[in-house]
Each structure stands twice: as structure tokens, then as C-alpha cells.
């Protein structure tokens, strides 16, 4: 290899090193596809939006803090909530910018000072240990917060649909509300029908066969049950006759006694 080619290779290597060094010093952009990378190792993550004035003023501080990532052995990430609405719902972001500290899948929200020195001290001095971690019910990697993230994404889809109807097609606001109302009713009916069909398939109703027995009149002798029931009935007439016979016999005895006297 001649000297000219050697200098070209060395220059190319220096350029690649500079580019890789600058890229590593910048915050790592996290999206819906790679956000689970923060579940391993230690991370400091910022939730921001380009239209947020506070986020724009904090950008320089966060970029400077990202340059300390190698010295502090911490990854510094950034999430744009306008491009990733599902993550804003998953992390329950209610203010911008919002900072999270994540270590081995344990989430803590940072509420301290936004100065670069304070951020460095928070990681270097392990001050994050003084903050209570996010409870399991609100953990971003839980099932319930994943559902909240889906609702946030659906809300952004509806919002973009509303913007398209009003700006591009010129539909008035009351027309958009009417369309949303009809779609809500129709989707509710379809969902209810689907739930009923699923219940019928999973839990089919149990029908009992009903047999209609037609009874025909029968004679007393042919129906023993009828005779047993008749035996239970007390005949008052027989009792009355027996009482009459007793009275007659007693009267006859009295007359015989009188004749004997």
C-alpha cells in the first residue's frame, strides 16, 4: 500500500470516529418499536413535543447531559409524544417535559431541578434511590397501561381524521360531530352483536324437552291411584247412620226395661 492510500484510509477512519462519537453524544430517539430497550440497564428518558416552549428551552440542557452518558454509564433517551402518542399514554404523561429514570425495568419519575449539574448528580450520586418507584398498576410495561396507550393512539387517529374532514373536505364541525355520533352508535351495535354471538358460542343455552301428557278418562277400577285417593275421603253419611242406629238401640232397651218392671 502506498502512502497516498494509507492517508486516505486514516482520514476515513478519523471521520467515522468523529461521526460515531457525535451520534453517541446525542440522546437516543425512542419510538413505539424500540422503547422496550429501556427495560435493560440504566436510562434517563425525556418526553417532549416540538411545539412545547418549555421543551425547546430545555433541549440544550438535555443534549449537554447526554454527552455525560459514557462517563455516568447511563443511556439518555428522548421520546416525541406527537409521533408516539401510545407511549405518552403508557407512561401517563400529563406535562411536558417529563423525565423518567429507569433501571432494570423499575420506573421512577424525576421531579427535581432541570439543571445539568443536578441531573448529573442525580445519576452519579444514586439519588434516584430516594424516589419511590412507580407502582405495579401504573408501570408502563403492565397490561393495563398498555391498554391506556392503545386508547391514546385511537384518540390521535380520531383527531387526525377530524382534521382531515375539516381542512381537506370542508365539512363543518356539526357535520363531523354527526358522523362521529353515527359511527359510535353503529360500532356499539356491532360490538354488542359480537359479544352476544360469542356468549352463545361459548355458553350455549340448555333446552329441556317438554312432553305433553294427555290424560284420558278412566274408570275407577282401572286407576288404583284414584281408589287410594277415594279411601282418604271420609263419608259423613255413614257416620250419621251409625249414630242413628245407636240411638234406636238405646231407645229399644229402655222400653224393654220398663215392661219388665
Task: Explain the layout of strands and helices.
Elements: H1 3-25, E1 28-29, E2 42-48, H2 53-66, H3 69-72, E3 75-80, H4 85-90, E4 98-103, E5 106-110, H5 116-124, H6 143-167, H7 173-202, H8 224-231, H9 236-260
Parallel strand pairs: 1-3, 2-3
Antiparallel strand pairs: 2-4, 4-5
Helix pairs in contact: 2-5
Mean pLDDT: 79
Structural class: alpha/beta
**Looking at the structure, what is the overall shape?**
flat
SSE sequence, one letter per element: HEEHHEHEEHHHHH
Count the beta strands. Answer: 5
What is the radius of gyration computed over CA atoms, rounded to a whole number of angstroms?
46 Å
Question: Could you list the spans in which at least 5 consecutive residues all have pLDDT below 50?
Answer: 16-23, 238-242
Instruction: Identify the quaternary structure here.
Output: single chain
Q: How many strands, what sense, and barrel or not for the largest sheet?
A: 5 strands, mixed
N-to-C terminal Cα separation, in Å? Answer: 173 Å
Percent of residues in beta strands:
5-15%
Percent helix, as a range, is 55-70%
Output the number of helix runs. Answer: 9
> Strand arrangement, largest sheet?
1-3-2-4-5
Tag the structure with descriptive keywords.
single chain, 261 residues, alpha/beta, 55% helix, 10% strand, flat
Amino acid at each position: 500500500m502506498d502512502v497516498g492510500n494509507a492517508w486516505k484510509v486514516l482520514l476515513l477512519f478519523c471521520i467515522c470516529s468523529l461521526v460515531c462519537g457525535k451520534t453517541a453524544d446525542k440522546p437516543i430517539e425512542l419510538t413505539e418499536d424500540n422503547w422496550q430497550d429501556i427495560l435493560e440497564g440504566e436510562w434517563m428518558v425525556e418526553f417532549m413535543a416540538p411545539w412545547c416552549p418549555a421543551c425547546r428551552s430545555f433541549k440544550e440542557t438535555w443534549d449537554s447531559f447526554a454527552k455525560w452518558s459514557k462517563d455516568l454509564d447511563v443511556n439518555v433517551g428522548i421520546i416525541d409524544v406527537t409521533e408516539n402518542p401510545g407511549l405518552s399514554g403508557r407512561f401517563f404523561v400529563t406535562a411536558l417535559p417529563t423525565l423518567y429514570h429507569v433501571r432494570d425495568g423499575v420506573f421512577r419519575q424525576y421531579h427535581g431541578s432541570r439543571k445539568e449539574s443536578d441531573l448529573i448528580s442525580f445519576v452519579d450520586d444514586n439519588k434516584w434511590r430516594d424516589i419511590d418507584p412507580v407502582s405495579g398498576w401504573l408501570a408502563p410495561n403492565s397490561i393495563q397501561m398498555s391498554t391506556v396507550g392503545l386508547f391514546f393512539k385511537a384518540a390521535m387517529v380520531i383527531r387526525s381524521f377530524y382534521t382531515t374532514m375539516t381542512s381537506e373536505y370542508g365539512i363543518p364541525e356539526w357535520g363531523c360531530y354527526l358522523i362521529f355520533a353515527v359511527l359510535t352508535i353503529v360500532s356499539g351495535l356491532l360490538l354488542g352483536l359480537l359479544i352476544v354471538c360469542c356468549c352463545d358460542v361459548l355458553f350455549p343455552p340448555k333446552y329441556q324437552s317438554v312432553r305433553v301428557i294427555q290424560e284420558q278418562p278412566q274408570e275407577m277400577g282401572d286407576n288404583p291411584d284414584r281408589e287410594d285417593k277415594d279411601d282418604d275421603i271420609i263419608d259423613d253419611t255413614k257416620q250419621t247412620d251409625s249414630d242413628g242406629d245407636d240411638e234406636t238401640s238405646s231407645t229399644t232397651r229402655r222400653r224393654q226395661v220398663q215392661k219388665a218392671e
